[in-house]
Specification:
The strands form two sheets. The chain has a six-stranded parallel beta sheet, sandwiched between helices. It has a two-stranded antiparallel ribbon with strand order 5-6. With 333 residues, the protein is an alpha/beta fold. It has helices spanning 30-37, 66-71, 88-104, 116-123, 135-148, 150-160, 162-167, 173-186, 190-193, 216-232, 235-245, 261-264, 270-293, 306-324; strands spanning 18-23, 43-47, 74-75, 108-113, 124-125, 201-202, 205-213, 298-303. Helix 10 (216-232) packs across helix 13 (270-293).
Length: 333
């Protein structure tokens, strides 16, 4: 199928295919925003949540429900087992394939998620020359991450290269390890190592919209409510079954599972475990907000109540209509 006229430049040249990205911290209402968008436009959703990729990790990752997925096609959900590792490169390849297939069906791809690095990996190419490697050093860093935790490893990167630490999410242990490996081997921050490399290039023409509940206490209240819903919805039983099957290094970084391990071992009561899960989720949301606020491409929309959220949803619809020229509007409208 040829690209619609709306994605051509004013001069008639072929422009990049369009995508819409709905991003923001956990519990900010991204999934509901996409579902509302589907009432006005022909869309399909591509998940950019690094943990919704894993089968069986349903409650703890707040996956769209079966009913929601029946209403709107979703991609990049349940594509691998928790025992497998999913790299950013592999994710980008699979997600881009899904985006192109969606375009081929005459629909608008909407990338939805809170993993900023995954969103960026889909819409931009960052081709860097090979950097030095040291297997023994990498293993030592991975061992440290397992023993001290992902946050401790990230603190090490923050000490050695604050700029890179601001760009790399603490939960992306593999990338943090690789960054520290390069820094140790070269004695230079990543910015200096990659100076002069080709600039990243856009693969798709993206409209990026962010959702942020404000003030911070409002967001935290939404997070606390989500944690309570997860616990009531079978999170403990899901985690117990998953630990019996086995996690990969990557999937084990998912918040809501590793925090339950001390409880499952009988080392911590459930009430303390729930408090720790709330705290970790809040910290994760703060890091997500930092990522998206630092991305100048993201149009951040804030809301403080249900009425404000409704206004945000209307604004997103208007922005998408302007961005696409209403080419993807539902025919019934």
């Amino acid at each position: 199928m040829t690209e619609p006229e709306a994605v051509r430049s004013p001069e008639g040249r072929e422009a990049l295919p369009p995508v819409v990205c709905i991003v923001g911290p956990t519990a900010s209402g991204k999934t509901a925003a996409a579902l509302r968008l589907a009432e006005r436009f022909r869309i399909e959703v591509v998940s950019a949540d690094s943990m919704q990729l894993y089968r069986g990790m349903d409650v703890g990752t707040a996956k769209p429900t079966a009913e929601e997925r029946r209403r709107v096609p979703h991609h990049m959900i349940d594509v691998c087992d928790p025992s497998e590792s999913m790299s950013v490169v592999r994710y980008a390849e699979m997600a881009r394939r899904a985006v192109r297939e969606i375009h081929g069906r005459g629909a608008l791809p909407v990338i939805v998620g809170g993993t900023g690095q995954y969103v960026n990996a889909v819409i931009r190419d960052e081709n860097f020359a090979p950097a030095p490697e040291d297997g023994a050093l990498r293993q030592a860093l991975e061992d440290y991450a397992r023993e001290a935790g992902a946050e401790a490893l990230h603190a090490r990167l923050r000490e050695k290269d604050p700029d890179s630490a601001a760009r790399i999410h603490p939960n992306n242990v593999k990338r943090v390890v690789r960054a520290l490996e390069i820094i140790e081997l070269t004695g230079s921050p990543l910015g200096a190592v990659y100076a002069g490399q080709p600039r990243p290039r856009d693969v798709f023409r993206a409209l990026m919209v962010g959702l942020e509940p404000v003030p911070r206490a409002f967001l935290y209240a939404r997070i606390d409510a989500r944690v309570d819903e997860m616990l009531a919805g079978g999170l403990v039983e899901e985690a117990r079954a998953l630990f019996a099957r086995g996690f990969s290094e990557t999937s084990l970084q998912a918040i809501a599972y590793k925090e339950l391990l001390p409880f499952l071992r009988g080392e911590r009561p459930l009430a303390e475990t729930a408090d720790e899960l709330r705290r970790r989720t809040r910290n994760y949301a703060k890091r997500q907000l930092t990522w998206f606020r630092n991305d100048g491409r993201v149009h951040m929309l804030t809301y403080a109540d249900a009425a404000g959220y409704e206004e945000c949803l209307q604004s997103i619809g208007e922005m998408v209509g302007s961005f696409t020229g209403e080419v993807y509007a539902c025919r019934s409208r």
